[in-house]
Every structure is written in C-alpha cells, then in structure tokens.
TrEMBL record:
InterPro entries assigned: AAA+_ATPase, P-loop_NTPase, Signal_recog_part_SRP54_M_sf, Signal_recog_particl_SRP54_hlx, Signal_recog_particle_SRP54_M, SRP, SRP/SRP_N, SRP54
Name of protein: Signal recognition particle protein
Entry annotated with the keyword Nucleus: no
Domains as described in the record: Composed of three domains: the N-terminal N domain, which is responsible for interactions with the ribosome, the central G domain, which binds GTP, and the C-terminal M domain, which binds the RNA and the signal sequence of the RNC.
Role played: Involved in targeting and insertion of nascent membrane proteins into the cytoplasmic membrane. Binds to the hydrophobic signal sequence of the ribosome-nascent chain (RNC) as it emerges from the ribosomes. The SRP-RNC complex is then targeted to the cytoplasmic membrane where it interacts with the SRP receptor FtsY. Interaction with FtsY leads to the transfer of the RNC complex to the Sec translocase for insertion into the membrane, the hydrolysis of GTP by both Ffh and FtsY, and the dissociation of the SRP-FtsY complex into the individual components.
SRP54-type proteins GTP-binding domain segment(s): 271-284
Key words, A-Z: Cytoplasm, GTP-binding, Hydrolase, Nucleotide-binding, Ribonucleoprotein, RNA-binding, Signal recognition particle
Gene responsible for this protein: ffh
SMART domains registered for this protein in UniProt: AAA, SRP54, SRP54_N
Subcellular location: Cell inner membrane; Cytoplasm
Length: 445
C-alpha cells in the first residue's frame, strides 16, 4: 500500500546514488512505482497517468542533491506536484461571497454523503469566523426527516433555519428563503438540496432548476471520501448538469487513503474547499493540500528532509570539499564544514528520525552525533590556528592543551576528534571516488 511508496522508491533509486542528474530512464522506473501506488490509493487511472507525466517533466534532468537519495528527491517532486494538483490557485479554498447580500450557497450531493451536516458546519463557520448572519433552508421536499434534521442541527449550532411549510416545491422554498433573508437582513443563505441514493434524472433536473432560479455564488458538491471511485463518478455526473464551484470532502477522519481527492480535483476542475473530519458540528477544516499530499504519500517526513537539505546545504562548498576529499586533501576545515551542514539539518539523530525505518536509530545517533556533540566538535576545530587546521599533524601536547582550554573541553576530547579525523581522512583516501557525495550523504543514507 501507500505507506511503502517511499520504500519502493528507495529501492529503485538506491542504484542511482552518486549520479549527477536524474535521467529519463531512472525517472521512468520510479514513476512506474508511483503509478501503481497512486492506483492503490484509489486514484483513477487516467488521473494517475497525467499526474505521473507531470512529475516526469519536472524530474528528468534535475540535479541530484548531495545529501538526500535520488529516491527521496523524486518523492519530494511527487509531493510538490500533488500539492499543486490538489491546491489550485491562491485563495481557491475560500468561499467566494463577493456579492450583495443575501448570498446564496447551493449544497448538492448524494444522500448520505454528509450534505446536511456539512451545510450546518459551513453555516456555523461563516457565523463564527466571519461574523456572517446565515439562514439555512432544506429543499428536500420528499424526506421530511431531512428538513427536521437541518432544523435540529441549526438549533445545535445556533444557526437560523427557514420555517418548514408543507406542500411547497424545492424551487418555491428556495425563493422563499431568499426573500426571507432579504427582509430579515441575512448575509448568506445555505440551500441544502435533496439527495438520492444514486443519481437520477429527476434529481438532476431539480438541482438544475434550483441553480437557475437562485444563481448561487457557490455550488458546493459534497462527496464522501470513503466511497473513492464512486465519488469521482458522482462528481462527473453532477458536473455535467451544474457548474460546481467547490467540493466538500467528508469523512476524512476515516481511514480512506484519500487518493480519490486527487481524481475529484481533476474531474470537477473545482477546488476542494472544505474537509469534513468528524460527526461533530465543528468538525470541518479548510482543505489543506499539504496535509492531503502527506496523507496520500504516507511516508514520514522525507519531504521536510529534502526541503531542509536543499535550503541549508551549500552546494558549492560541498562540491569543493568533495573534490579535495577525493584527492586526499581533506583537512579539519572541511570537517568543520561537514559538521555545520549536519548541524543545520538537526544532527544525525534528526536526520535518522526523518528517514523511514531509521527512527529506531535516532536516539543512538543523537548521542553520538547530536546537535550538541556536533557543536562541540566544531568548537574544538575553531579553537585551532589556521595552520593547525590545514595540517593537523603538528598538533603536539601543548597545542592540544591550548585548544582544549579555548573550546572549554578536555585534552582527551581533542585527541578523540583528531583520531576520528585521522580515521575519516584514511577512509576518504581509500574511497577516492566514493567520497564525492559528501560526508552527510555517506552517513545519512
Ligand atoms: P446527507 O444525507 O448527505 O445529508 O448526510 P448527513 O449530513 O445526514 O450525514 C450522514 C451521516 O454521516 C451522519 O451520521 C453524519 O453525522 C455523518 N457525517 C457527515 N460528515 C461526516 C464527516 O466528515 N465525518 C464523519 N465521521 N461522519 C460524517
């Protein structure tokens, strides 16, 4: 399943370490895995295909970062494209209420999708967060229970509902709601249309008619995330008949992987505006593409790791150090630079913690090469003269004593550092070419 996408990619890309740039072949292989994983997460096939194409365009030729694996880098690209696909433009997730009051919002969707609950949730949110005066009206003329339900929810939430008048058609109720709102100074009118268990012509015609007569500022389609591909088909059918301006995705508190969200965004062309995250009246979040992408990928914090690496690591310096290392010219200044880079990433412990499956080594790594320890080692090197850093061999007893005092450590700490430098320097020479990718990379992978 999706949890292992990062592991799969890890496997595919392990072989690619040390290459300069991601080639088309490398990327193709990884993307086969991505496509399978997307389909497993309930993303429709054509959507998965077009998604993978986007990732490919972005990934091929991309320079390989030194401190993360190419696999991790592709995961990051997958994540970014996910966020963009789910996200749309700036302000896309807001309700568009720029109209003279009362502003109608039409709620459409299948029965059981959470339409009535979402109507009340959004109304409450508008009242609370935006200080809007909201009127709700149920247009479900066939199910008196649905009207009652909205009235009960309205009472719970402290949101007014239109008094129920028997015998009126849905369009008549909608008109009455708009008139009442105008007279009584409401800002927003939420119209909860009738649902059906499945789409039928009569329902669609009714929704269309209501849309035409009320001309809503927003037409929000409510979809149940747990129904996956069915919800995508529902979205397709509704979109044929009414111009959907936004999606409310409910039951995101359940354990659906949420891949359907991606399909919905593509199919409706409308942004997902809200996420239903529970039965309670305040269990509604503004849709967050970042969080959703994380959920779809389900893979620890590789994304954060790559972002950090890209931000913090000074590529040029690393490049230079790598060249010198390969030639066996690695000195204490280079070592100090490596420490700085690792510390910027939060120390070995933090790096381990971000890697899938490595969490258990986090503590051990933290003790040996945590931020504090790194800072200490750096301090020792900084207390040396330039000459000593370039040529550590000249470190005699009195020099060591001076350096220890300067760094606030014991002489044996200085000895330890010099010893590990020696070991590392020998290793670097041995590895020759292998030293290219920088120490952070060697240790971090
Ligand atoms: P409608 O027929 O589309 O109006 O659906 P309802 O609003 O009556 O919701 C059907 C059921 O789903 C109710 O029991 C709601 O409490 C529940 N529900 C609605 N939204 C969510 C949600 O986001 N999470 C969870 N767990 N339950 C929800």
């Amino acid at each position: 399943m999706f949890d292992t996408l990062s592991e799969r990619l890890g496997g595919v890309f392990d072989r690619l370490r040390g290459r300069g740039a991601l080639t088309e072949e490398d990327v193709n292989e990884a993307l086969r895995e991505v496509r399978v994983a997307l389909i497993e997460a309930d993303v429709a096939l054509p959507v998965a295909r077009s998604f993978v194409k986007k990732v490919k365009e972005r990934a091929v030729g991309r320079e390989v970062l030194k401190s993360v694996t190419p696999g991790q880098q592709v995961v990051k690209i997958v994540h970014d494209v996910l966020v963009e696909t789910l996200g749309g433009g700036e302000g896309d997730h807001e309700l568009n209420l720029n109209r003279p009051a009362p502003v109608p919002i039409l709620m459409v969707g299948l029965q059981g999708s959470g339409k009535t609950t979402s109507t009340a949730k959004i109304a409450l949110r508008l009242q609370k967060a935006e200080k809007k005066k909201v009127l709700m009206a149920s247009l479900d003329t066939r199910r008196p229970a649905a009207m009652e339900q909205l009235a009960v929810l309205g009472e719970q939430a402290g949101v007014k509902t239109l008094p129920i008048v028997k015998g009126q058609s849905a369009v008549q109720i909608a008109k009455r709601a708009m008139e009442a709102a105008k007279l009584q100074g409401f800002d927003v009118v939420m119209l909860d249309t009738a649902g059906r268990l499945s789409i039928d012509e009569q329902l669609m015609a009714e929704v269309q008619e209501i849309h035409r007569t009320t001309d809503p500022a927003e037409t929000l389609l409510v979809l149940d995330a747990l129904t996956g591909q069915d919800a995508v088909q529902t979205a397709e059918r509704f979109k044929e008949r009414v111009p959907v301006t936004g999606v409310v995705l409910t039951r995101l508190d359940g354990d659906g992987r949420g891949g359907a969200a991606l399909s919905m965004r593509e199919v409706t062309g409308a942004p997902i505006k809200f996420a239903g995250v529970g039965e309670k009246i305040d269990a509604l979040d503004v849709f967050d593409p970042e969080r959703m992408a994380g959920r779809i990928l389900g893979m620890g914090d590789i994304v954060g790791l790559v972002e950090k690496a890209a931000q913090e690591i000074d590529q040029e310096k690393a490049e230079k150090a790598a060249k010198r290392m390969a030639k066996g010219e690695f000195d204490l200044d280079d070592l100090a630079d490596q420490f700085v880079q690792m510390r910027k990433m939060g120390g070995m412990g933090a790096i381990m913690g971000m890697m899938p499956g490595m969490g258990k080594f986090k503590e051990a790594a933290e003790q040996g090469m945590g931020s504090k320890e790194l800072a200490r080692q750096e301090a020792i090197i900084r207390s040396m003269t330039k000459k000593e850093r370039k040529n550590p061999k000249i470190m005699n007893a009195s020099r060591k004593k001076r350096v220890a005092a300067g760094a606030g450590v014991q002489v044996h700490d200085v000895n330890r550092l010099l010893k590990s430098y020696q070991a590392m320097s020998t290793l670097m020479k041995k590895m020759g070419k292998g030293g290219k990718r920088g120490m952070a990379a060697q240790l971090g992978q």
